[in-house]
Amino acid sequence: MAALGRPKIALPTADIVARYAMGDSTYAIGLDLGVSYSTVRRRLLAAGVGMRSPGRAGGFQIGNKLGLGNYKRGGSFFATGNGYLCTSDRNGKQCALHRGCWEARHGDIPSDHVVHHADGNRQNNDIGNLVCMPMADHGRLHNLRGH
Is the keyword Acetylation in the record (predicted)? Predict the structure, then answer.
């Protein structure tokens, strides 16, 4: 038994080390194994692996867990009062995460367009759930739905 009466989890240390060496983050590895990133980190340290410097994981910025590459938005995520996930740019300006995801994959959003969440869930920023559409069409769509 481990500390606090919890059983020790058998994790594939060799696989963890190999994935980390190939650039996977402790967060991504932990997500796949069903454990926290700190558990993965402790296993790596116990195996004698030197940790990468904070703020960079496999070439991605912190705050870019979707792995879409380095883009102009980054930092911590937070939810706004209307339910959108946001981050702050380097100047402290609030930026909607779904817009950043769209721009990272498809480029700039035209000024008369918005990025719509197809399933209605404002926190589901999967690229397959995002649709760029003209503001007028977006307004009509929400008026038809009643929200």
Answer: no
